[in-house]
User: What shape does this take?
Amino acid sequence: MPASATQPSAKRNNYAVVGAAIRLRGNAKMFISRAVNAVLKLLLEGELLDTTQLEKIIALPQTEVDAQLAALKAQGIFLGWRAVLNPAAEEDKYIRAIVYLKVQPESGVGYDSIAERISQFDQVETCYLLSGAFDLHVIVKDANLRKIAAFVHERLARIEGVQSTATCFMLRAYKIDGHIIEEPENPDKPAVSP
Assistant: This one.
């Protein structure tokens, strides 16, 4: 049984796939079978499962599991597999920053045009529309602080409609996508006392 099955039902019911339908772009709805719902639920809960394991768990032949996953990919629901890695163990060290942007929405298209343009940059890992003090939350990755600062100043801040930016550099990850990140032991790190 997956470890996530022991979590409170409130956690498991936060996903849009628990019911018989999931919301797609716009007002379109797609009705899904219990088998597809089970596959989506396991994937959303972060289980590391291949199609052979999924076949056993949901009691469907592997060909049916493969077909369901292919259909989910074709419909733009399942976008791909994502590994969760400890950033401290990355061979090629990168710096990441969260960039908050205030933008002027464009007439007729709102924030979409600016967000889609920002999402095209290679340095941008993630881009979200927000409510609150800022409009967009962008996670940027590059080789060093200067490159990120230059990218924000020379590229993001100069996009028409961007009113202001606020950059926060990520120093350490404690939890990523539900996984606790343990920092490797560092004997040279001085002890900190209050």
